[in-house]
Amino acid sequence: YVLTQGEALTIVNAGAQPSFVVTEPGLYTIHTLVYDDSTLDLGIVEFGVTTGVDVNNLLIQGGGSICASLDVAGAPVTVEECNGDCLANAGTLTAFEEAVCLTNGEATFGAEGNGNELVPAGYEVIYVLTSGAGLVIEQVNAAPVFTVVDTGSYTIHTLVYDPATLDLTIVEFGVTTGVDVNSLLIQGGGSICASLDVAGAPVQVVDCNTICNVNAGTLTATADEVCLTNGAASISATPNNDAFKPAGFERIFVLTQGTELVIVNASVTPNFVVDAPGLYTIHTLAFNPSTISLSGIEFGVTTGFDVNALLVQGGGSICGSLDVAGAPVQVNNCDDLNAWPNPATAELTLELQGLGNGRVELDILDAQGARTAISTSIAADQPIHRLDISDLRPGQYMVRVITSNGVRTVRFAKIDR
Length: 417
Known about the structure:
- The chain is mainly beta.
- It has three helices and 31 strands.
């Protein structure tokens, strides 16, 4: 893990963990670097001089020749000089459930602290419940647990305060807002030393008997294309934290194949191993086990469209949510496409095998994935094909072959004579 400082991404530290201590205010960014120490010598890095851009320029992703990966965007953190006279910090909360059902006219929900609060001596902690986007204060409690009788959007906040300086009798339930209170505090532009977790822990209260309020959320594939190596390929995705799952609902991940979305596997994690090339898609399914049985899914037969048709979102009657678009991943049989010489100067020879029937579309893409002027169509049974690349500028390129069996790619470098 690499720590950079400023907009120029000047490297100031590195370590085996994404955790650093700094002594100056400013913009810092934590980056991940995946590399082979036999090809990338980190001895070239001079703290305070070398930048992340300098390192990235050495890598294939940055137009260089070394196979490694740097998360250039990274995780930015701004370090500020804090007011030493006010150390109160409400920290943050995480709700037990993002959504709860209104049952027999009431709903109880809560949250837990994330262990990042700071309560100075003489200060107290209370928890505030607000409703709606306006954060209207409805209740306060000594614990972050509340009971309400209406559906709607609620948020649980932590308030760290000194009773000698902040008089809570000014709060009128149903009228005063969290914004009103925050404006009295130093953090909100006021003069009182106290801390309110304004973002808080949001909770949606819904009437589950009449409303199907569930969202499976979306996924982002770890890689859009992967290679089938020794007959197997691992594909995975990461949830985008936009799911909305009421209490009692469960979540699984479904793997489909082809544009017909034929279901071939399911798992409690979005990670799968496949043994054939082709287009695969990882989907999230949020469902209530009491209303839908997964035993009805027959791998290789049932499709994602079949499942979606059972749900309210797909015109059916069952409350559930399927991310139909999902995270698509193309699995290629990379061993069937070879290119030489590499690096090449004026001509590139391609060896193509097992490419199906009919015609094969062949393109050369630059390092950013944009098509170059070299594009052609050849017969799938033509095992050897030669390309004139003399007009290409020196740099990193990729040959993309689109066939009836899927998409295959191979990288090469173009150099001057």
